[in-house]
Design brief:
Blueprint (H helix, E strand, L loop, with lengths): L1 E4 L3 E2 L5 H26 L9 H6 L5 H66 L14 E6 L2 E6 L9 E3 L2 H43 L9 H5 L7 H15 L2 E4 L12 E4 L4 E5 L5 E4 L8 H8 L1 H9 L16 E6 L3 E8 L15 E6 L3 E7 L5 E8 L7 H16 L1
Antiparallel strand pairs: 1-11, 2-11, 3-4, 4-5, 6-10, 7-8, 8-9, 10-11, 12-13, 13-14
Helix pairs in contact: 1-3, 3-4
Amino acid sequence: MLALTSTYIKKKDMLPASAQELANDIFTFETLLRTTVYDLQHPHPNAKESLHRQYKQTGLTDYFVTSLERTAKGVVDAAKEAQALDIKTKEQQAARIAEKINRKKAQLSRVASAKASLAARSRARKKGGIVPPFENPFGKFVTKKVTKEGLAFFVGFKNGKRKPTRYDNEYLFETLYLDPRIRRLKSNINNLKCRLHDLKGELSRLEREKKAGVVHICFGGKKAFRQRREVRRRNELRSWEGMWKHRRRREMLLVGRLDGPQGSWMARYDVEKKIFSYQTYSGKWISIPGVEFPYGQGWVEAAVSASEIAKRNRKLPPDQQIPGWPVGSVSWSLKDCGNAVQVKCMVTLPEDPYKNFCYDDGCVAFDMNYDHFAASELGPQGELQRHWTVPLQMEGRTSNQISNAIPEGLEGIFR
């Protein structure tokens, strides 16, 4: 499924009555959509008829009810997928935080062992016994040197760009390096444990909601809804209310049908005049002029013309068949953008008949990098036969030169 977006059509180019009718239809659709979402999640236990028939009894056509149901199911399924993704993300975050806690604990144990070694040396000096050697748990990161005052320590840096910090004796090394680092590591571990505790609480809540089938849906967007907290003045409140109402009633979906002309019973598109028409809730047809698609105009025309071409081909002999796309459903979406309207066309592209799915003789795979193509050739059993690189110069070239260099590099691979 591919969604193609048209250019903006100014409402002043439409008839005033048609623009008002479109706004009313979008408002009605969004209002009924919220009701449909609630009814899907909370079906009536004693309902004798399906939800589709219940909505049809209110005077809506079968096609509009189908659009409402498809859109509502899409909203609920998207919320469930977002919930599953949120659970997966939080599980990964919890695992990373637990791993980080273990690393911090290992660092703390090394620092504590170094501090214990220094304490043992200090006790041995006070008792006048043999001073044990300092056990260095830091490896090459911390080096020691024997001086007149005792041991001097040099603490390096990871990047190696700065000179190692020198501590002239054991007391300075313990009080200026080990003790602050112990306090910092303990603080980091406690903060990470609090974060892990909060994540586990959120994760358990999400799992309970998933098991109970509870999903959170906010029509208009949670970000826009939370902006209400920042409102302090009356004029700001009116501005927020206008924005919020606009975001909650701005798009209407017209689901296509395979058996309909141009793939839909509710919408028509004049390929020559670039006029889009649809049937309103009241049964009238209104037109939107100047509907053009800057990207994919040919795909839209081929999709809406497929059913008409198929009807003509039924009456023509095999040698006079008109080439065209296979017949399929075409869905449309109307979006209110304030003083303009935007039309979306959703089509399914046919499969490429020239795409190769056979690998009996092996295949060639390549990967494009900044300055070269990396290619490899595989045999029929998937074994690597050879691999090579093709240089590709990007730096110092214009965009057109780069566009020409890419096919030249591909020619070098498949030559």
